[in-house]
Amino acid sequence: MRLRLAVAVLLGTLAAATLLVLLAGASPAEALAALLRGAFGSRAATGETLARATGLVLSAVAAVVAFRAGVLNIGLEGQFLAGAAAAAAVGPLFPDLPLAARGAIVLAAPLAGALQAAPAVWLAETRQVPPVLSTILLNLVATAGVTWLVRGPLRDPSGDYPQSRALTDGALLSPILPGSRATSAVLVALLLAVAAAFILSRTHAGLALRAVGEAPRAARAAGLPDVRLRSGAFLVSGALAGLAGGLEVLALTGRLYDPFTAGVGYTGIAAALLGGMTPLGGAASGFLFAALGAGSSALQRDAGVPSALASVVPALAVLGLLLAKGRPGEVR
Amino acid sequence: MSNRRLFLALLVSPLLATLPSCGQAGRPKAPAGFRVALLTPGPVSDAGWNAGAYEGLKAIEKELGAKVSHVQARTPSEFEEQFRAYASDGYSLCFGHGFEFQDAAARVAKDFPETVFVTTSGSRTSRNQAPLVFELEQATYLCGLVAGRMSKTAKAGMVGGVELPSIKSTFLAFEAGLKAGNPGAAATSVFTGSFEDVAGARAASLALIDQGSDFLFHNANAAALGVFNAATERGVYAFGSNRDQNALAPSVLASAVIDLPRAFVEAARTVREGRFDGQPIRYGLKSGVISFVWNPALLGRVPAPVVDEVERTRERIVSGALVVPRGNF
User: Fold this and answer.
1) Most buried of the four, A102, A109, B213, B222, by CB within 10 Å?
2) Which residues on neighbouring strands pair with residue B131, listed in sequence order?
3) pLDDT at position A288 over 60
4) Is residue A20 in some structural domain?
5) Is B119 helix (H, G, I), strand (E, B) or coil?
6) Mean per-residue pLDDT for A300-319?
């Protein structure tokens, strides 16, 4: 059933994408060729897919952890930015100690992500403010925060440009595939996805968390610490998104810039939805979207199809899935 | 059940037919001729910064017969990805349209010595990387000179967006021109903190006019409309900058213009003819990339000696006899 659904969504998306490519005046065969070449056509291309996948997989897992606990955390984008900002703040403090810089980033980024989520947690549990609202608003705060940081406190004093100080080359993660940009960060993301899958489906804590998400009142009646579980899942979700932001700095950019993301936190939610709200499904969708992203760049480079148009494709896939899954009259 | 499988197979089969074509096109072809790529941080339909670069790319295609390609790269991590893809595909020249492309270009330039990387503004250089540097100061100096000669109050206002060194540098040159035109004149600058805040720029301009400024210079991108609006309302003159803004308002006396497309073509020509030497590629009044353009509708109100003096000063800058001050950045 699930496989057939996935195939139907994939075909529907392909058909819609073909139509879009035709509208843009390119040949669908050429476009598909460019898409595949951009995603897997060479070692460098595969590396790009893996490099892009890191943030998407972690965001997708972050979304799953929160959503399964009944928290609609739409703030992954902001938590990602908070993590990236923290990485850019602590990384350059250790210019001669690359390992210390890496360690500081890996600790500070998730912490910052969780802190970015914390106001929404507090508002939800004490003031009944829906996280959907508070996290979207906090995303705006984070975006403005990055704009301020790169022009203010984090600005690189040696240059005149609005960007943070650079990590040393020694601190940046080196590629696992020579000649590509894929680093061990993607392995970290995968490992965490597996861990989340195990915890959610095989442990007491995971069961309790899902119970709180699916039937909060029943869970509370059964004596589960619902507030603590929900808040914990929310903070962990923020921490995962924050780690994604930190790894983006550590593996790819070495600095904080403004703008820093093009919606990886939102795409992560889409990946989680497409992956059936499971960590491994979300991770797989994250890879799919990463391949689409890397492929769509080649689509613009080689076939002249605007990459903005190509970014419509993942959105179509999610819409298709929701259409295929939803039954008339059912409101969740 | 089997019907469905058959149906699915039928749906998939045309897609499979397209696969062989990717096998052929999959390998990068041997570099054929001069190929130029452009990375922009935003859409080229913005009628501004990115559109100018894209026009430049199109002009390179037309005038130099190059094969060109463009991609929009939105985040710093995408910048490197796109540079790498073009370089490994054997492109001769990659433009990154903004200072923020420097780091990514430097990382890729190291691995692909055969490809030249040019960033629009910036400071990093290497054997195969350099920035384009626009000496807009040479034209803003002329704006200042005009204001110095024509201002009745001997006061001029300067409205900036974000307080960046490149913006301050144009103000420095304007002020130098102003004092050259009238040693007793004074300039006041205001930074609104935003390149988009039209209302803020308007308020700042009105305040400057209230303090006696009867000439306004700006370097505030889109927020400039607020400057022009205030100048028109109070009947004072303004100068355009970066683009020819003479048609935007009846108060714009002249503009200090960067011809972005021309800069791209000239830079590409430099690379193709093997004259690229890893030094910043500077364009001023001499190259024609930077120019000072009178508003033809208002030229009648400018005293003839001032027009003559601007032309003579322009020639002195072009010949190198006059060096316009610029910020150190």
Assistant:
1) A109
2) B119
3) yes
4) no
5) strand
6) 77
Mean pLDDT of B193-210: 92
In which domain, by residue range, is A90 found?
A: 42-325
Compute, in degrees rounded to 10, the torsion defined by CA atoms B135, B138, B143, B148. Answer: 140
- What CA dihedral angle connects A204, A112, A284 and B87, to 10 degrees? -160
For domain B137-257+298-319, the question of CATH label 3.40.50.2300 is answered with yes
Buried b (16+ CB within 10 A) or exposed e, A83-113: bbbbbbbbbbebeeebeebbebbbebbbbbb
Q: Write out residues 94-133 of A within 8 Å (CB-CB) of B.
A: none
Per the CB < 8 Å rule, is A159 touching B123? yes
Cα–Cα distance for residue pair B158/B156, rounded to 1 Å: 7
Q: Which residues of B touch A168 (CB under 8 A)?
A: none
How is residue B3 written in tokens? 């019907």
**For the domain B32-134+259-289, what is the CATH code?**
3.40.50.2300
A77 in contact with B, Cβ within 8 Å: no
DSSP B57: H
* Inter-chain residue contact B81 with A11, CB threshold 8 Å: no
Q: Strand locations in A89-245, DSSP E?
A: none
Enumerate residues 6+ apart whose C-beta is below 8 A from A225. Answer: none
Q: pLDDT per residue over B81-101, tens digit each?
A: 999 999 999 999 999 998 889
pLDDT digits (tens, 9 = 90+) for A199-219: 999 999 999 999 999 999 999
